[in-house]
Specification:
The protein has 488 residues and is of the alpha+beta class. It has 18 helices and 12 strands. Strand 1 and strand 2 form a beta hairpin. Helix 8 packs antiparallel against helix 9, helix 9 packs antiparallel against helix 13 and helix 13 crosses helix 16. The N terminus is likely disordered.
Length: 488
């Protein structure tokens, strides 16, 4: 009982602070009743519509949550409240374009305090010129021109993963198994961690980190946020130890400056000649380890679902990948030109990410009062865009519930209607990394196996990121005929 009282007091104090924060926001709005705010509902004090959104996310009904409010209030923009802050949700291609093209002009990136506290000095928390320089520095490694040099290594990792975790198995749980691939890839290319036990330990810590990423940041024993903070501390501490060791290895010329992302950041200054601090490197590494493997895990899981459920699509992907394989010498690894030939496979992946985007949207903050669609958006308001406002809109994607990879042929979808990776200056900097990661995996998995879904009706939900409710178990059926290039 005494322990319960001890824990209850900080909780009450935290909620009291949040309540004061929310009330102050309302007072400011009421002082200026002439503001023509977007229509909508701010919900309950403090929590707003947070729980409604989270229930929709975990129930796989985010699109319905958005559509209901677009239909009830305004299809262009509506107001709500999330995690204690009034928020305007921008909808449609016009809303996406407005937010993406006004970065650092009238809006800037913003994240809920739980994310800011966990990702600290990383790119997530930077704005303006500082963000531009950090982004350019990270992109100097994650660009297509640089990543093409790491393609052979990515190919080897994919083949070893399939040999170790898929061959000889009758049934596989996709979400947890694919994670072993995406995390092995991120650990290898970012930190040169290749030992499976070390990778597994790192992956376990990252799972704990992810669970408290989005929610009320109440740092109390037993909470998800406390476990996330502990995991973040452990990961960054380990990365800092690697930094010290790598610096010595670079000085003694025992490793190459192009060995991995860590070496790259240690030897590459920004445009002002400044090098990242050890804390900045470790925080950005945490960001990239999370973003570089969890979003790809979500995307690959949903791709595997659709390929398992749609044999005709699977056969076309298989045909494309076998043709690429037959043009190569026995045992030859994938080359950059091969990736460029995987057009249908990428169209399939793109259509899957339209139907099931890995991320449910991100945030901005108004840095000055501005008008949009005839409404006033006050300075300090939080802003949000969500792929669901366009991806399932029949005006841009006819018969949106149907799978149709041909939507991405030719000029593709209407500008700003397809946004699984965001857009503008804040577009996902791991886009090219994810594209290669996904296509390399698709190349090998379809050549080795067919599969069917154990539960064809299994749903996907958002718990920070997209995930299958039961992990997506599948039954594997190895091909009876395997050409020489498929030998692992």
């Amino acid at each position: 009982m005494e322990v319960a009282k001890f824990l209850a007091l900080p909780t009450i104090l935290a909620l009291f602070v949040l309540c004061l924060h929310f009330i102050s926001k309302l007072v400011k709005l009421r002082k200026n009743p002439s503001l023509n705010l977007p229509p909508g509902n701010l919900g309950w004090p403090i929590v707003g519509e947070t729980f409604e959104f989270m229930l929709a996310a975990r129930g796989g009904t985010v699109v319905r949550f958005i559509k209901d409010r677009m239909e009830k209030h305004d299809c262009r923009v509506f107001k709500t409240s999330f995690l204690g802050d009034p928020m305007a949700v921008f909808c449609g291609p016009a809303g996406n374009k407005f937010l993406f093209s006004n970065e650092n002009k009238i809006v800037q990136v913003w994240w809920p305090s739980s994310i800011r506290k966990l990702l600290r000095t990383s790119l997530i928390s930077k704005v303006g010129e500082e963000a531009k320089m950090t982004r350019r520095l990270l992109l100097s490694f994650l660009s297509a021109e640089v990543l093409r040099n790491y393609l052979p290594k990515m190919d080897i990792i994919a083949q070893n993963h399939i040999k170790t975790h898929w061959q000889g198995k009758e049934q596989v749980i996709i979400y947890s198994t694919v994670q072993l691939y995406t995390y092995s890839l991120a650990c290898c290319l970012f930190l040169s961690i290749e030992d499976p036990i070390h990778v597994s330990e790192f992956s376990s810590k990252l799972d704990d980190f992810l669970k408290g990423l989005l929610g009320f940041p109440i740092n109390l024993p037993g909470t998800k946020f406390r476990r996330s903070m502990k995991a973040a501390d452990e990961i960054t501490k380990e990365v800092k130890m690697m930094i010290l060791k790598r610096k010595l290895e670079l000085q003694e010329k025992n490793v190459s400056p192009t060995q991995d992302l860590l070496s790259h950041l240690l030897v590459t200054p920004d445009s002002n000649g400044r090098f990242m601090t050890e804390t900045e490197i470790s925080d950005n590494m945490l960001l990239l380890l999370f973003a570089g493997h969890d979003t790809s895990r979500s995307a690959l899981s949903s791709i595997m679902k659709y390929l398992g459920a749609m044999p005709q699509v699977y056969e076309q992907v298989l045909k494309e990948q076998v043709e690429i394989s037959r043009e190569k010498e026995a045992g030859e690894l994938l080359q950059w030109e091969d990736i460029q030939k995987m057009k249908y496979s990428w169209n399939v992946a793109s259509e899957v990410m339209r139907l099931l985007p890995p991320v449910a949207g991100t945030y901005r903050e108004a840095i000055k009062d501005f008008n949009y669609a005839g409404y006033t958006i006050p300075k300090g308001w939080k802003l949000r865009w969500l792929p669901g406002s366009t991806h399932m809109d029949p005006a841009y994607f006819p018969n949106p519930e149907a799978f149709d990879a041909s939507r991405f042929e030719g000029e593709g979808p209407t500008a700003y209607s397809y946004v699984p990776f965001g857009g503008g200056p804040r577009m996902c900097l791991g886009l090219e990394f994810a594209r290669i990661e996904i296509l390399v995996f698709m190349h090998h998995i379809v050549k080795w196996f067919k599969w069917d879904l154990v539960n064809s009706d299994e749903k996907f939900r958002y718990d920070s990121l997209l995930e299958p409710v039961n992990g997506l178990p599948i039954r594997l059926h190895p091909h009876t005929i395997i050409d020489s290039n498929q030998r692992l």
